[in-house]
Each structure stands twice: as structure tokens, then as C-alpha cells.
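Two proteins, back to back. First:
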Amino acid sequence: MIGYRFGAPRELPLGTDQSGHLLPWIVAVLVYLAGLSGVGLIVLGDTLRAFEHALHTTLTLQVPAEASNARLETVLALLRQTPGIVSVHLLEPAETARLLEPWLGPVPLDELPVPRLIDLRIDPTAGTDLAALRRQLASVVPDSRLDDHRQWPEGLRAAVRRIEGILGLSITLALLLIAASAMLAVGAALMVEGSPIKLLHVLGAADSDIARGCAVRSLRLGLLGGGIGAVAALLTILALGGAGSVVQLPAPITVNGAADWRVWGVLTGIVPVAGLIAMASARVAVRRRLAGMP
């Protein structure tokens, strides 16, 4: 009986099988996808919170274009005196034109009966009586319209939950595929003619020691691939950092690339997780294979 003992955990040489060369790159791709999915969950959560805050703190008042300046000033005074309203901003014609340009194009507003828009910021904790405010506004300008944005668009919340589920499933599948890849790599190593694993087993080395050596090797390869994937994901996030300014979104993207500690937490946390999964999977696979050998 030959004892294959380790004074300290060390890597078992497995020859030149291609599985050892492919495993880090497979892990890198999977960590890249899992890292981006994790950061995507952060971005989605922050965007939704910002969007929901905007819905609960914003009102828009439409005053008919034919309303006189005196009535408009009366409406503004009424709004500024209403408890719970912290900001009143009458949009200038140029501002309204910019809002309508994506739908109507650069059309002069004097050619259309466009209502005057008043942007209101409210304190959601003040409990503003919107029904009473609407009655007061109607007494000044009967055709005015106060839009309450606090209701979520129909189906939006369900769509968000589906996206979160897809991202979570992507992370889970990536981790499962890392485990499967480590097991396949071990299986391929055992199929190589003259495999050191087979030789040590025949010579009487303890299965636990052989499995430990394979686990150390898989841990090293998993950490290497995980590091490559995490760096690639970080570079992608930095490259896409300005996407929020290109795509007009209803709420800002609050994740600020490398400046956000949560991004670092996700990308640095997934690397050791990938390595540990690869190590544990390799250990289990080797023990099962060795248990079936004579």
C-alpha cells in the first residue's frame, strides 16, 4: 500500500489532457455571465426604486392653452399655498417643445393648442388631499387636469419580476455549469491513457488523498478562470457606464460602475464561489470514479 499524503494541500499532476486547458476558459465565460447578471439585478433594483420614488413625488398639471395669464397666475399661487407641495415649476414653451419633439417633431407650439404644463414636486409623507386640490383647480380653470403618476403602469411590476427571475436563473445555471464542467474535466482526465489518477489508485494511494489533489488543481483553475471572467465583466460595465445617458429611461441608472462597492462585491465574491464549486465538484467526481475502479 502506497500512501499519497500531503503535508500541505498541493496539486495533483494530471498530465497534458485538454480538459485542464479548457476549464479556466469555460469558468471565465460562466463567471462573466453570472457577474453581469448579478450587477444587472443591482441596476434593476436601483432603477425601480428611483422610478417608484419619482412616481410618488411628482404631479403634472395641464392648464388649457386658452387660459388667461391671470388665471394661470392664480393657479400657481394656489399650488404654492397647498400643504405638501414643495416645488412648483411652470414649463416654458421651449421646455414643452423638447418634451413633445420625439412624437411631433420640431413643430412650433404657436401652431398647436398645447396646454401649459406645471411640474409639481410633493412630499409623499404630507398626505396632500388631491381630490380637494382638483376641486379648487376646477373652480379656477374648469378644464385643467391634474395627473397623478403614483399608479404603476399596468403589467410593469409583473414584467420586472420576470426579468429578475431570468437574471437569477442565469446566475444559478452558470454556477451549475461550473460544477458540471469541473466534473467533466475530471472525467476526461481519467480517460487519458496513463492517467496519474489511475496509476496512483493502482499503486494503492488513498482515494481521499487523490481526490484532494484533484480538488486543489480544480480550485486553482476555477480561481484563474473566475478572475478572468470578473475582470472582463468589470471592463464591460465600465464600457457601458454611459449607456444611461444615451437611452432615455424613466428613472436614472444609479449604479456607477467601479465606484459602486456593490459591483466590486458581486465580482470579487463570485470568483471564490466559482473556485470552491469547481473544487467540490472535482472532489466528488473523483471519489465516485475511484469507488468504481478495481
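And the second protein:
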Amino acid sequence: MRMGIVWMMAAVTASWMGCATTDTAQSKPPVAPCSLDEIRLGDQITVTFSDLPQPGIPEQKVRVKDDGTISLPEGMSIQAAGKKIGVLEKEIVDLYVPRLFRRLSVIIRPDERLYYVGGEVKNPNRMPYIGEITVLRAIQSAGDFTDFAKRTRVEIHRADGRLEIMDAKKARKNPKLDLPICPGDSIIVPRRGV
């Protein structure tokens, strides 16, 4: 009998603790804005090495791998995703100097960054990412919705693999609901049922 009471009290305590944590688990952290100065997964970047004795290291075009790293000459590898360009340049210099060279300068240039708009828009296409843009503005840059667009379930496929759903009708009335787009993201506007 005593064991039954102890188990029941433990169950009640656990359920209270579960309820307390459920509220905080449901609140989502704010989405960080995109930065043109930040290296992202899948980015292709050009790394230029200078201030080296001849023959030096040729310019490198590298893609940021799924694990966030890039491979560099001399068997070097470094974490790149999530870092600002200036920080990554300094870390690459520190990787080579003084181990292999007495001095070195590094310049990183990201290749053209794109986002994609497809589905029920008038001009589905890839678009150059030149600065901050939201879902509704991206759809407008693709000629706007077709007559068959399901505007209440616009899909945003993030470059990092996440999927977000946005109600474009609500976002037109409340701009705070209009989500930002980052390089590598894809917007898919589904077709509504007839």
C-alpha cells in the first residue's frame, strides 16, 4: 500500500514538472536575420592567398560542406559555416602562419548567392540574393502568385534543411508574419485544390 502511494506521488510530481516545461518548449527562438558577411552551408567561396614566396598557393574555389568545413591546400581543413568573412580570413592565416609560412594574406569572396521561388508563381526561377528580403517580396520578384496558388500554406525550405509554413494572406495583413529569406532557401507555393 505504501509503495502504491509513493509511486502515485512520483507520477503526480513528474506530470507537474512535465507541464511546467511544456510551455517553455513551445516558445520558438526568434529567427536570426541573414547576413551577406556570414558563410553558410553550401556556399561556394573563392579564397585568394597573397604575400607568399613564389610560386605561392593558387586561388581556391571551395564549397562549404554539409559539416560546415572547407578543405584548403596542404591538407588543411577549417570550420567555415556560421563565421563572418573577416573572422574566417584571420583563422586561415593563423592556420598557416607560422607553421608553413612567415606571413600570409587571405581574401575570401563568396560567389553569387541565390534563393529559389517555385510552384504557383508566374515566373518561377532562382534569384540573386543581394540583401534582406522577405517571402512576400521574393514572391513578388517572381511575378506574384498565379490564380491557382494556395496562399495559406507557402513552404519555405531552409538551406539548413528546416521546413517552415507561412500563411501569406495573414502576412499581407500583418508584416511581422512575413518571414525573412536567406541565401540557399527555396520558396514553394503549392497549388490549391479545385
